[in-house]
Structures are given as C-alpha cells and as structure tokens.
C-alpha cells in the first residue's frame, strides 16, 4: 500500500514542472511513511511513497526499474497471486533477465507488464493503481483495479498529464483550483462526489477497471479491461444450497489470499455479519487473529460491540475494543477534516478514522467486510425497494399513511423517529419511477433543494443541466425489473464513491492498509450470476450470506436489524459543535463574503437543525461544514 504521483510533459518546457515531483510526493507521506523516492527521466517525473507490506527490504522500494533500465513502475496496492503469476507466465522473462531480485509483487507486476502489456491486467488478484513507463517508446500505461479500491486522479492538458493518488498531491502540479459547480450541486445531494468527476474543474478520476494509454505525442486514450456485469443467463445455474456452498468456497479462497503479509495483520470486527464472516474465515489461517472494534460510551443506540465480542470469543481472537466517549471522537475531528482533500461528508468516516488510528498501533494490515452490502443486498433501502415491488396490503397502508408520516418528527437518532423517517421515505418513494426512487433514497436532499443553497447565479443553468446529465448517466443501469440492477448501481455509485473512498482515505490517513475479501473478482462475478431472490426477500436482507455462514457464527447475529456505522452528529451539532457551525464555517458574514451559498438558506438550515423536527438537516450541515473547511484550506 503506497501513494503514487507523476507528470508526463508533452512540451519542451519540462524542468520547472517536473521539479514539482518532490512536493507532490511529500503530500502522500501518510500513504507511505516508510520511504519516499522520485525519478525524472526525460519528459517524465514519477514519485512513490511506500508503506512496506510485502518484502519490506530496501530492494523492493519504488520507483522500480527493470534490469535493463528501460522500464519503470510506480505502484500502489497489492497483487495477492503474484507468486502464482510468476510461476505460470514469466519463465521466458526469467530466462532473459535472471531470477527476480526481490520477493515483491511490484517486481512481478513490472515483469508482467514488460512481457504482456495490458493483457495481464485481467489476471491480477488484488487492488491497485499504477503507472508503467517505457523510456524507449515514450509510452505510458496507467491503470486502476476492477472495483476502484485504490484512487487515481489525473489532469490532462495539451502541455502534459499529471496524476496522483490524492488531490492534495495532484494540486502540486500547478492544477488550477476552480470549483466545478455542477459537481458541488451533486455533492450536496449525495454527500460525496461521484466519479469520474471531481470538485476541481478539469480533474478527473480513472474509473475502476480502466487503463489509460499515453503515447509520446501526448495522445491519451482510455480503455475498459474489466466491467462488472449482471448474468441473468446464469440465474438457474446453482440451487440455493449449491450457491451457498460455492460462496463459502470462494470467500474462503479470497480471505486466504488476503492473509499474505510480511507485517502484522488483523481484522475489523463490527458485530455485523460481514466482518464476522471475515473473522471466522481468517481464523483458519492464523493462530491468534487480532480483531478491532469501536464502541460508543455515551450512546448505547449506536454501540454494537457486544455482538463483536460474541464472535471474538467463539474464534478466540486477540480482541481490542476501543470504547470511546463523545470527547474522544471530537478530539479527532480536526485531524480527520484536515486530511480530506476533496469534500466527502459521510459522517461514519469519523469512527473509521478513529478505528484505523487505534488499529494501526497494533497491526499494519486489516481485513474488512466492505462490499457485501452492495453486492448481496444488505441495506434497509434494499428491503424497502423489494417491498415496493410486491403487491401487498402492507405496502398500500404505508403509502396511504404518507401525510401522517410527513407530519411526525424524523431523525436517525432514536428508534421511533428513525422509523417515522423510513416510513415517510417509503411513502414518498412509492410515487416515483425506479430511477427517481433510487436517487431519492440515495440522497439527503433533492436537486431542487440542493440548488436552493446556492447564491443567485452561482449555480448556472448550464451547471444544473450538466448535474442532471451526470445523474442520468449514474442511473442508466436501472432499465428493467431485475433487482440486481439496483445492486449493480450501488456497486458503481455507493460502493465506489462513498464506502471505498471512506475506508481508503481514513485508513491511509493513519498509514493502515485495508483489504476487502468480499471484493475479489471471483466473489463479485459469482454474486451477479445469482438471482436477487437468493439475496433479499420479505424476511431477510443479505440472505445467502447469512444462511451460508450461519453455522460459523453466533446465532444472535442471524437476521438481526442492520444498525450501521453512525455517530450522533445531531447531538454534537446542537451542543459541542454549535460554535463551529454558527461562529465559523457557517457564520452568516463568512457565507456572505464567500459568495457561493445563499445566506438565507444556510440560516434556515441552522434553525431546522435545532428544531423539534430536524429530519436529515444534520447530514446537509455536515456536508456544508466539510466543504467549507476544504474551501478555506485549498481554495480561499
């Protein structure tokens, strides 16, 4: 796990720009605290920060050259099947160059790219973003893993191509810092930025499963080497019992592969099904697995550590519970906000940041259950969508009660107000098409509500049109009544832009590598050969995961309500963080001077926050706070 940066100059005026590689590389220090190196070769500069995981020797450091000195690579990630690939595909390479100089996956990847080019990308098990450069031909390949676990941003102009693992590093390549208002409009709806967009105009993100080819003439072209696809033709291939057995087999292989490490390894254990499955399987391959949970001292409603403890006891793990008070969370808030280099407002990033911070004191690598909810239907909105598609008296009663649910108080912070909130969202979603309902349930405010936060003329008509076009592109997969289309859209929107960004950013802020066995290609591809009836029905979400692993887990975990990884933002905003809102980041005079948002709208939002019916106002306040903090640091 590392950080990479680079610049390919297409003009002769290279010296000044390429010299920025040192500053850009330094911005990635937390991604790679162990070593940092740069190289300048002709019109290309490459930088690499290393977090040593596999072959921690100095010989495995990067940028890494091949023995001939013609090819060089900077690589962020892990290739778990690198030894198998070396044995199967690289005999001719070894005959030409001799035995490998290191025991690293980087050297094997470099050899594969020299020998096979982009053809080898489909063979790789793992996650990655890399740049591979041929000094003789002047050709460069830049690629990203199939599900986008590792980020790769780029800025392409007639003068050159800059790329980096993080925005803060990319900006060191003299990228103009102009906000894309159409993206800000989407961000206020989703609380994150959908890829390939970014908050900075002109900056894009390489998409999962994409490879970029750059030639010496400055021509860059994109190609997709992997795309997740639904396979209805395979829906009858497995019985439910056979599918469960196959899932266990594939997950076991994925976990086993991800146990490879030359540094200490552990696992997150939240108390939910996904992380518990990972711990159950990982415990087969180590005597005393380290496991880690975050608890909430001041809010039992959000605390699930008792369930995690059941799993830890069953598998005799070396379990660590970080039981934190509100003050503990608040102490880390500035550090988390300071690391964010593009607005991102999923508030569960705070506990992930803290969990990563404390976990890193014990291990360098952690396994997680990311991806299971999106691929196997684990969210409450999935159960709601399934019910919406069934003709039933209960559905009609909830729809008919729309005016009542609208009148009741809505909040996520206790059982009843959260239930009223869910009933209201269900009833209002019933009136909409599938794409519009999906968007409503995936967002915190409508396009019209988001637009109302902008000052007059700040959000142009053109920006709103572009925002709508992006939204249609994001929802283009919702074409038929196949429920798997909802899950695939979640993989491409929620998983990619929210969950994976959150875990990558917060873990890297603490120099911790996180691996996700549910996101092995072999698992995800298999999941989309299964009918949705194997995943969700009237009684259960994530059905096949729960049934397939039921014998391995404590009975108390089976089919219990999903709670989520949330924090009591509403209480904080009304108490400890009110001064940050009212006297700083959303201060009336500051908003007016900034000139982006409408003062009347932000003041009304603050009033709603402290009212008896706050609804999801805390989520929008958080989105604005994160943006304002970022704007002051990177734009103002």
TrEMBL record:
EC top class, as a word: ligase
SUPFAM superfamilies per the UniProt record, alphabetical: Adenine nucleotide alpha hydrolases-like, N-terminal nucleophile aminohydrolases (Ntn hydrolases)
InterPro entries hit by this protein: Asn_synth_AEB (IPR006426), Asn_synthase (IPR001962), ASN_synthetase/amidase (IPR051786), AsnB_N (IPR033738), GATase_2_dom (IPR017932), Ntn_hydrolases_N (IPR029055), Rossmann-like_a/b/a_fold (IPR014729)
Classification via CDD domains: Asn_synthase_B_C (cd01991), AsnB (cd00712)
Catalytic function, reaction form: L-aspartate + L-glutamine + ATP + H2O = L-asparagine + L-glutamate + AMP + diphosphate + H(+)
Keyword Protease: no
EC numbers, comma separated: 6.3.5.4
Swiss-Prot/TrEMBL keywords: ATP-binding, Glutamine amidotransferase, Nucleotide-binding
Pathway in which this enzyme or protein is active: Amino-acid biosynthesis; L-asparagine biosynthesis; L-asparagine from L-aspartate (L-Gln route): step 1/1
Pfam families cross-referenced by the UniProt entry: Asn_synthase (PF00733), GATase_7 (PF13537)
Signal peptide: none
Gene3D superfamilies found in the cross-reference section: Glutamine Phosphoribosylpyrophosphate, subunit 1, domain 1, HUPs
Domain Glutamine amidotransferase type-2 positions: 2-217
NCBIfam families in the cross-refs: asn_synth_AEB
Family annotation (PANTHER family): ASPARAGINE SYNTHETASE, ASPARAGINE SYNTHETASE (GLUTAMINE-HYDROLYZING)
UniProt similarity note: Belongs to the asparagine synthetase family.
Protein name: asparagine synthase (glutamine-hydrolyzing)
Organism for this UniProt entry: Rurimicrobium arvi
